């Protein structure tokens, strides 16, 4: 099975990022897949939670938001897998079997 990188942009979306990440871990072959989060702004502890849970993430170094397009472009360039999924923080991954 090919590895997949789930790319998730976030702007102060900790509660959604938690649900999204947990759904990917639970319903995909997480041990072979990757999760990458682009944190555009963090005033809610998103970076801290990602770090504690060893989730790869990129932090916007600027004060101004870069936006979702920039976030996806950045994550797609950083992905190390052939398959990349553009995911949103408020999406849930579900195994339909």
Describe the structure concisely for a colleague:
33% of the residues lie in helices and 25% in strands.
Key descriptive features of the protein:
25% strand; alpha/beta; 97 residues; 3 helices; 4 strands; globular; four-stranded parallel beta sheet
Plain-language structure description:
This protein is α/β, with parallel strands linked by helices and 97 residues long. The protein contains three helices and four strands, in the order E-H-E-H-E-H-E. Strands 3-2-1-4 form a four-stranded parallel sheet, with helices on both faces. The two termini are 17 Å apart.
> Count the helices. How many?
3
Radius of gyration: 13 Å
Largest sheet: 4 strands, parallel
Mean pLDDT: 91
Structural class, from secondary structure content?
alpha/beta
Helix content: 25-40%
Order of helices and strands: EHEHEHE
């Amino acid at each position: 099975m090919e590895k997949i990188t789930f790319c998730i942009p976030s702007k102060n979306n900790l509660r959604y990022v938690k649900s999204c990440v947990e759904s990917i871990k639970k319903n995909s072959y997480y041990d072979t897949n990757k999760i990458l989060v682009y944190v555009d702004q963090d005033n809610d502890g998103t970076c801290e939670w990602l770090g504690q849970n060893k989730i790869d993430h990129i932090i916007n170094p600027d004060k101004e938001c870069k936006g979702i397009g920039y976030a996806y472009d950045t994550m797609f360039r950083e992905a190390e897998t052939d398959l990349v999924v553009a995911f949103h923080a408020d999406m849930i991954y579900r195994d339909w079997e």
